[in-house]
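pinging the channel bc i need a second pair of eyes. not urgent but kinda urgent?? the chain im working w is below, pasted from the shared doc
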Amino acid sequence: MSDSLVEARLGKIEALKARGIDPFPARVPASERIDGVLRRHGGLAAEEHSGARVGVAGRLMARRQMGKASFLDLRDGSAKIQIHAAADRLGDEAYRGICDTDVGDFLHIAGEVFRTKRGELTVAAESWTFLAKAIRPLPEKWHGLKDVELRYRHRSLDLLSSDETRERFVRRAKMMETLRSELTRLGFLEVETPSLHPIPGGTTARPFATHHNALDVDLYLRIALEIYLKRALIGGLDRVFEIGKCFRNEGVSTKHNPEFTMLELYQAYTDYEGMMRLAESLVGAVFQAAVGSLVVDYQGTRLDFSPPWHRVAMLDAIAETSGLDLGTLTAPEIVAAAKTKGIGVPNLSRTQLIEHLFDRFVEPTLIQPTIVTDYPVEISPLAKRRADAPHLTERFELFVMNMEIANAFSELNDPVDQRVRFEDQERLRAGGDEEAQRIDEDFLFAMEHGMPPTGGMGVGLDRLAMLLSNSASIRDVILFPALRRKDEA
């Protein structure tokens, strides 16, 4: 952008001050939201005047000047309305002043509402007030930022220039509102838990580490909300949920951002079957509220969220897609079985081999909403074992368009078994697995006082927002995604 454009606008600021006009006043004349004006006067016929005088405030987005009269587009956070400014109504000095404003400036306009001959609802400006000066012009004449990096780095300009971007975040907000209202209706209590944890727990992931100077202790940004929510449930809050940020010091992709938003909820006296029904109910309510349908288009694929969703056991899905029946095979036996099928696999632990085969063969097939159930105990240290198959757990994950959207358990409430599994995780950690979980003595202490049978679920809200808004990348639905520093990009 030319420095001369900035210098010209800075010059206008000085000219305003010289005329005794504050270019950044602290007070705004009485005004109302533009969407309210549009609703109230939407019934006006062409060329009909309302007789009602309104005050509206917003950003000047466009101007079409025709001698002694001009049409302006004014937008606030709710909508856009047309302004008609005329010298014979405003007076010559006030008209010259409004014509000297720049697109991007903030103005207050007062006048009568009428509908033009062409049918546009309009405010006939009788007076106006300067509210704030924009020093830099808006991008590309407001046709949108074409550079993806600029859209993420300068989200404010993306929001200004793209109706699609604004609608994306409106849908995200509707998702949050719906989840909270639905869970409250079902008797869940929203709580808040710490973001700084002494032990990173609740899942397997690499944490961000920091140091608390006053307490002189190392702490970690939470990788999940689970452990503290379970402690609240043990304390007698039978239905709890939290919508909060989690942080994982891992890679960035179209499906991953190091800072992301989770919904986690825990309900006493139910199990993972109850969580399956709750997932179908919550996701259905969100799509009805934000989109108005359970059938949506996502990147050219028609998705149907009508319940019941398809269900398949994890090991069955691996067998169906790869031909490998893992059962209770050990790691060397899995490698040998894969070799007989002509499938090369890396030298990994049994846990890692199962995850590798699932990611490689199953996940690419999971397009429509699919509940994958009964995960092996080695990869589910916080889930209850199946009574009829102790090597498996009562756990499921919801997949849509190859993305994990939700993860749920019949929660492990046996403190002895929980300690053993934590110890198994510690051995994995000692063997070099940096993401393995650690023993959490405070959690075990709480659990040893008794924990009711519980169903728990976590939902990745950024990925759900991607589906709601037909967004190909997680960065599209995070208002300010993580980026490299500009001088390193």
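so The chain has a mean pLDDT of 93. and The longest helix spans residues 163-185. — does that match what u expected or am i reading it wrong
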